[in-house]
Design goal:
Blueprint lengths: L3 H15 L9 E7 L4 E4 L15 E4 L4 E3 L8 H11 L6 E5 L2 H9 L8 H4 L14 H5 L2 H13 L9 E4 L3 E6 L2 H24 L8 H12 L9
Antiparallel strand pairs: 1-2, 1-5, 2-3, 3-4, 5-7, 6-7
Helix pairs in contact: 2-6, 3-7
The chain binds zinc ion (ZN).
Zinc ion binds next to loops.
Length: 232
């Protein structure tokens, strides 16, 4: 099988992540899933974004076996794989992980990001949740796979496309989307709304989330069955 287009899409979005302002050092990675091929592509471990070539991208199946590529995949690969297994059938085609600073501030504080305005509601239906800490045996065991498990536990019965981001406690965000562009846009928006929520709370510690009607209006006009935002 020829993985050229999957590899090119993954290299392109990882290079864009590298220049997005979301990433310090090499703290971030993007994967792209192709359900027809039953495979996903991911950034190799420890390679600088600007030096990333299409050929460096690693292709794995959903069992975690490398099916194409020479380099070692990102150490976070089992987390991405867990999310594609759980949500691939529900439209998730790309996962982004960053340590973007304001989102990490909430993850380290153990706080979800409340929906305080329409900037947030345009992309996320309600609070962006934070996970519990992993148990010690999970941390010592299959740590990255267990990180995926705690994300799935935190999403629970929610539609993953309504809540396309989770903060892993003491770590940082995992974000996804219907394609690589959508996932990267969610990662950028998450960082913006995290900074806005933090500053809003500084100014007004008692601020409450926006009313449900306003939240639904903004989310549904972009994402609902009768969406009318943009050019269609
Ligand atoms: Zn990380």
């Amino acid at each position: 099988m020829n993985y050229a287009s999957l590899r090119a899409a993954c290299a392109d979005v990882n290079r864009r992540l590298g220049s997005s302002g979301l990433v310090d050092m090499t703290f971030g990675n993007v994967s792209v899933y192709d359900p027809d091929a039953g495979c996903f592509a991911i950034k190799p471990s420890g390679v600088a974004y600007e030096a990333l070539m299409d050929a460096d991208i690693v292709i794995l199946d959903l069992e975690g076996k490398v099916v194409d590529g020479e380099l070692r995949p990102s150490s976070d690969t089992p987390t991405h794989r867990r999310l594609f297994i759980e949500y691939g059938s529900r439209g998730v085609r790309s996962v982004v992980h960053t340590h973007s600073r304001h989102a990490v501030v909430f993850a380290q504080a153990g706080l979800g990001i409340p929906c305080l305005g329409t900037t947030h509601a345009d992309s996320f239906r309600g609070e962006i949740p934070v996970t519990r800490f992993l148990a010690d045996e999970a941390i010592r065991g299959e740590y990255e796979w267990e990180t995926g498990n705690v994300i799935v536990e935190t999403i629970g019965s929610r539609n993953p496309m309504d809540c396309a981001a989770v903060l892993v406690r003491g770590h940082g965000p995992f974000v996804w989307g219907r394609d690589a562009d959508d996932a990267l846009e969610h990662a950028l928006t998450l960082e913006i709304v995290a900074e806005m929520a933090w500053k809003t709370r500084m100014l007004c510690p008692d601020v409450k989330p926006i009313p449900d009607a306003l939240l639904s209006k903004h989310f549904d006009r972009k994402h609902g069955p009768k969406a009318y935002y943009g050019q269609g």
